[in-house]
Write a structure and sequence with these properties.
The chain contains 16 helices and 15 strands. It is of the alpha/beta class. The radius of gyration is 22 Å and the shape is globular.
């Protein structure tokens, strides 16, 4: 039985997209291996250590991150003056992080790397580590694992799992100039880590990135799909409703995943169909949603950030599921697999003509992909109205979904990882 340590960003109870992928694989591996998870603390009240489902979770923080978590905690508990005070403190925190990203030789948070590293030391003191699987994003998980493996007196297999393009992510590097100026250093750092790794795991959508920049290491890389396709079991009672419920869950990020076109469509769609549009969102581009909520009370609702389980219940009680592709179309929205697993009608809004999400949905018969074009908004609305009229009561059988997306089943990725361990 090998001791495998997964390092992720946020984990239970506030699962990130990457954390959700890791959890699905862990659920497959935990029966035959000792598992430990190291994650970043996401709220002031979360315990530092916890045992869940037979494995240990270590949540890390730093002085700077702990300050932010404290400010967010106090903001929720405060009156109007206190909220303003702590909001200002949070803005100051973000400013520090922004300056840090511009001034550093590489765009990595040193305090988070150190926190991950110290957690690995604690874990190894309790049980010898055989394999470390750091999941990037965040890349700090990979860098800390690399540093730890180099200094360890034991032979530890390092298998980084890449879920995003660290080198070319504008949202991560804050500005195009910052990304461009540090690109070579980021490539060299990645090469150094790959060369010292046992194997590399990477999403299929990153294949071209690795072939272009790290071709000499191609034999080391195993490409996988998002391990997110799971049959959903619900014991809850479905809420009966007269209006059609459309639901979007996830992040809204300026310049990356924007709700503007969707909201423009919904504004017109409300006049044609009796619908309710529900948002369960977080991110820095949610204010416009709140503006529409004020304009259309009862027809558009923003529930804000909710737990993973609450989001699942909302999706289960919905008629039509909504996705917004990120602007470049290079990354698949991980929530799509969650949507697909429910077998419900799905509308995807996209910008790029070469959108990976559109390609993925070619295998899903209850999908409607809408190109965000303001000149075509009326024809797009007609397309949506026709799609809803035809498919609003349809649900796909899970077995047929699984056949079409067999490589997205967590067991498939888990088996590939087991092969790499031998």
């Amino acid at each position: 039985m090998a001791h495998i340590v997964f390092i992720v960003g946020s984990y239970i109870p506030n699962l990130s997209a990457v954390g959700g992928c890791a959890k699905n694989i862990i659920d497959e591996l935990k029966h035959n291996h000792q598992i430990t998870v190291i994650s970043i603390k996401t709220s002031f009240e979360e315990p530092n250590n916890e045992t869940i489902d037979s494995y240990n979770i270590y949540r890390v923080s730093s002085r700077l991150l702990s300050c932010r978590l404290f400010f967010e905690f106090k903001k929720k508990k405060s009156g109007q003056i206190g909220k303003s005070l702590y909001s200002t403190a949070i803005i100051f925190y973000k400013l520090i992080r922004f300056i840090e990203s511009l001034l550093g030789k590489v765009n990595l948070k040193k305090d988070i790397i150190k926190s991950y590293y110290n957690a690995l030391i604690k874990v190894e003191k309790k049980a010898r580590i055989d394999i470390i699987i750091p999941c990037s994003f965040p890349f700090e998980s990979v860098k800390s694992s690399f540093d730890f493996v180099l200094q360890s007196k034991y032979k530890i297999k390092l298998i980084p799992y890449f879920f995003d393009n660290f080198v070319d992510s504008i949202s991560l590097h804050r500005t195009k100039l910052n990304k461009h100026m540090k690109r070579n250093k980021h490539i060299e750092l990645t090469k150094k880590i790959i060369s010292n790794s046992h194997k590399i795991l990477a999403l299929n959508t990153l294949r071209n990135h690795f072939l272009k920049n790290f071709e000499i290491y191609n034999d080391k890389i195993c490409y996988l799909e998002h391990p997110l396709l799971k049959k959903k079991e619900f014991s809850i009672k479905v809420n009966h409703h007269d209006k059609l419920i459309l639901t979007y869950t996830g992040s809204l990020i300026k310049g990356y995943v924007s709700p503007v076109y969707l909201l423009q469509v919904i504004k017109k769609l409300i006049l044609k169909i009796d619908i309710t549009m529900n948002f369960f969102v977080m991110g820095n581009d949610t204010e416009i949603v709140d503006d529409y909520v004020k304009e259309f009370p009862g027809q558009i609702t923003n529930y804000g950030r909710v737990s993973y389980d609450e989001a699942q219940i909302a999706l289960y009680n919905s008629d039509i599921l909504i996705n917004i592709s990120e602007k470049s179309g290079k990354q698949i929205s991980s929530k799509l697999f969650n949507y697909i697993s429910l077998g419900k009608p799905l509308i995807n809004f996209y910008t790029s003509d070469d959108d990976e999400n559109v390609k993925l949905l070619e295998r899903y018969s209850l999908s409607c992909c809408i190109k965000e074009d303001i000149l075509e908004i009326n024809s797009n609305i007609k397309k949506i109205v026709d799609f809803i009229a035809k498919n609003k009561n349809q649900i796909l059988d899970y077995n047929s979904i699984e056949q079409n997306y067999f490589d997205a089943i967590p067991k498939y990725s888990a088996n590939k990882i087991i092969e790499l361990l031998n």
